[in-house]
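# nightly structure sweep
# worker-07 picked up a monomer target from the shared queue
# config: single-sequence mode, recycle default, output format = structure tokens
# input follows
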Amino acid sequence: YNVAYEIRLKDALEMDLVAPFHYFGVTDYEINGEMVDDLSDLQYLTSSARVDFLIEKIEYYGYSGESPKGLIFCRSLDEAKKLSNEFNHRNYKTVALSGTDSQEHRENTIKQLELGEIQYIFVVDIFNEGIDIQCLNQIIMMRQTKSSIVFIQQLGRGLRKFPTKKYLVVIDF
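# output follows
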């Protein structure tokens, strides 16, 4: 229980230790007047209309740098896989990853993102902490969390400084 050093996000930003960020809280897609959320059926979370909505918002809020390099936090593996497939059908380059994937596969996928071979990694229950992907310029949160710790950890994945990134864009659905 000995903490060697602790710094708050506000202090780290003021000391220019991390990349600044632009946070956008976005109202998620509605179907028949009902908000899509974590309790919605998978068919609604991955519907063509919702995917079009997500892409519209992701493109609207943008990113800093030459091309998007993002992590998209999802609630389930089925959602991540289906959304990744839908994005790929719309000419994006994406991969879905979860805790079931090998460490080697995860590292290869990160390398693909860093090299620009893919644009997004849809993740489930991984990459909340302990991962350093400096090139990330978008964090997209598509799963609800009531934990401020998990929220800050997910946000923190994109706060590493990188030469082609002036700021991080956080889109929270």
